[in-house]
C-alpha cells in the first residue's frame, strides 16, 4: 500500500473516532511528520463524494457527516433542535453581516429595541460572542459570530453566507452597505475596537434590563 493511501486511512480513522471536527493542523500533529495532509484530505473527500456519508470542511475543520439529500432518513432519530425566535434569527443575521456590531446598532437596523433575552439566547447557544469594546462614549460591547455558528449552519467560512442582496430583500440588513462589502474576519479586532478585559465576563442579562421589544 502506498504512503498516500496509508495517510488517507489514518485520517479516516482519526476523523471517525474524533469527538468533533479536526483542523488540518490538528490532524498533522497526529500523523507522521512530512505527510501531505491536504492532499490526503482532498483524495478522501473525492472518494466519499456522492456516498451516504461525506467528508466536509466546516469552519476550517474536517468531519464526516450524513449526505444532505439523505437527511430525511434521520428525522425520526434526531432530537428536535431548539428553534430560534424570529427576533433571534434577525439579530443573528445582523450580527453575521455587520460584525463587529453593538446592541444599539442591531436595534437601529431592526428598528425595534432588543428584548432582554434575545442576545442572551444567542450567547448561551454559543452562536455569537462578545468581541471587544467600541472606542466611542460608553465603550459599548461589540458582538460577532463564532465557529459554532458556522458549524451549525454548515458553512466553511463567513464568505459562504447567502448573498447580501438576498438578505436585504428579506429585510435583515440595512440598505447602506457599500458595493464592495465583505464580512470581516471575526477573529480580528476592528480598528475602532479594544479587546475585552478580564472584568468583561458575559453577565449579558444586565445589558437588557428595562427594554422591551414590541410584538415579541
From TrEMBL:
Q: What biological-process GO terms show up in the record?
A: cell division; chromosome separation
Ranges for region Disordered: 185-216
Residue stretches spanning the membrane: none
* Bias (Acidic residues): 191-201
Q: Which UniProt keywords apply?
A: Cell cycle, Cell division, Chromosome partition, Cytoplasm
Tell whether Cell division is among the UniProt keywords.
yes
Biased composition, class Basic and acidic residues, residue ranges: 202-216
InterPro entries with a match to the protein in the record: ScpB_csome_segregation (IPR005234), WH-like_DNA-bd_sf (IPR036388), WH_DNA-bd_sf (IPR036390)
PANTHER family found in the cross-reference section: SEGREGATION AND CONDENSATION PROTEIN B
State the protein's name.
SMC-Scp complex subunit ScpB
Q: Which organism is it from?
A: Phenylobacterium hankyongense
Q: Which taxonomic lineage does the organism of this UniProt entry have?
A: Bacteria, Pseudomonadati, Pseudomonadota, Alphaproteobacteria, Caulobacterales
Amino acid at each position: 500500500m502506498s504512503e498516500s493511501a496509508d495517510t488517507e486511512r489514518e485520517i479516516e480513522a482519526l476523523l471517525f473516532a474524533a469527538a468533533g471536527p479536526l483542523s488540518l493542523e490538528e490532524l498533522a500533529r497526529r500523523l507522521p511528520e512530512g505527510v501531505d495532509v491536504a492532499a490526503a484530505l482532498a483524495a478522501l473527500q473525492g472518494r466519499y463524494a456522492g456516498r451516504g456519508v461525506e467528508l466536509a470542511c466546516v469552519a476550517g475543520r474536517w468531519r464526516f457527516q450524513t449526505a444532505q439529500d439523505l437527511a430525511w432518513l434521520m428525522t425520526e432519530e434526531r432530537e428536535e433542535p431548539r428553534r430560534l425566535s424570529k427576533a433571534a434569527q434577525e439579530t443573528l443575521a445582523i450580527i453575521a453581516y455587520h460584525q463587529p456590531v453593538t446592541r444599539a446598532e442591531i436595534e437601529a437596523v431592526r428598528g425595534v429595541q432588543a428584548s432582554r433575552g434575545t442576545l442572551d439566547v444567542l450567547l448561551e447557544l454559543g452562536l455569537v460572542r462578545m468581541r471587544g469594546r467600541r472606542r466611542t462614549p460608553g465603550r459599548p460591547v461589540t458582538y460577532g459570530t463564532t465557529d459554532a455558528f458556522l458549524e451549525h449552519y454548515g458553512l466553511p467560512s463567513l464568505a459562504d453566507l447567502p448573498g447580501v442582496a438576498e438578505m436585504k430583500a428579506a429585510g435583515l440588513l440595512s440598505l447602506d452597505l457599500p458595493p464592495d462589502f465583505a464580512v470581516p474576519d471575526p477573529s480580528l479586532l476592528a480598528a475602532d475596537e479594544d479587546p475585552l478585559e478580564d472584568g468583561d465576563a458575559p453577565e449579558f442579562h444586565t445589558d437588557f434590563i428595562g427594554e422591551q421589544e414590541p410584538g415579541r
